[in-house]
Amino acid sequence: MVWHKNLSTIPLGPVVVVIVVIDIIATVAWAAGCAGPGSAVPIEPAEPSGPAARTLPQDPIGPATAIQAPLRQATDLRPRTLATGALTYAVAFADAHTVVSVELRTDFALAIRRIDRDGKIVEQTHISLGPADIDIVDLAIDRTQAQAWIAALDGTIRAYALRDGRPLTRWHLGSRATAVALSADGRLAATGTEDGIVCLRRRADGALLQCIAAHEGRIADLAFHRDRLAVASWDGTVTLWTTPSLTISAHRRLDRSANALAFHPNGHQIAIATSMTPPQRSPATARTAPNPTGAHSRPGHIALWTPTTATTDQLRTLRGHQGPVTAVTWRKARSGDRLRHQLSHQLISAGWDRRVLAWDLATGIAVAHYGPFHARINDIACDAQGRWIATAAFGDGVRGSATALLKMGDEPMAPIVYEVQERR
To answer: Model-level pTM greater than 0.85?
Structure first.
């Protein structure tokens, strides 16, 4: 073991031409390396960097830029509510028809729900995870073994069988556990703690391979891609490690909290959810005051990082959220999607502004806005086919969804707003 230190509807007619022209100008401007007058999101230029392992200069964020491209209002969108009257901390898909979430009512439970093609629940199971006094803050799925893994602030990492709910594994980390991730082949498990320690284990027998004092703040998220492990921390840094040796291959320092991250499926790019300060609010505050105030009300953004071992390090900034961004994921473009002619996957983000945004990376514009939800969104997940986005939020039992599904369809090429009408 090694230690290292309600928008009004815009009528059709001449305005449609304006929208098309604006979109064309934005696309051309981006291709030229600058943000044109129709571009909603300024794109940061590539910045020079030295060796990949050194800390790069801080990202010049600048003031948040509101979306300037016209937004078209769509018909109301009613999400499929899976749970109300609960606080949902995390959510994931075990397969195309199984949604798994960590929910708190009187006690914590692992909710396992089978859904049909229309998103209706056909079967559900709840596995008790313990009393409400210890938060369970992260969830990961091992699809090779049909297991759910959780990280709890009592310092434990636990695994449960999805088929029957049997407890399988319990590791004690010696510090409050804040993150857990499994490699795609199920061989490795990574854990993170509140004091910045990252450890790598063999999943099968729990053998400890490496532990690294990786960050100065809480480990907020972990993600595997092949032989690489990405780590995001509330100290404002993101680090890329080679596994299983846990040698550093790239490092990026931001001027704000890194709250969540996700590899693009091709592994070349990492989406990072950020906020000015770490997103720390109690469940009671989140329910009684769904709109953050103070530093938490300042817009967050998504950083798109392309780490490389060459002489350049690319970082793009996507602005559109009006509060801390707490979750990012990549959605596979389906056969009917117009975005397939551009990209194979679409970036989806969510945050404390109670909205889910779908991005067109060719222009840097959020082309679909879902919201507002009743409460802030803690986590999102996408199924492998790109049909559904699952959301996790702190519902209040009267209105609003704790766990819900958004059905994804043919996304527009011009910005559009979906007004979410949650079940009352």
So the answer is: no
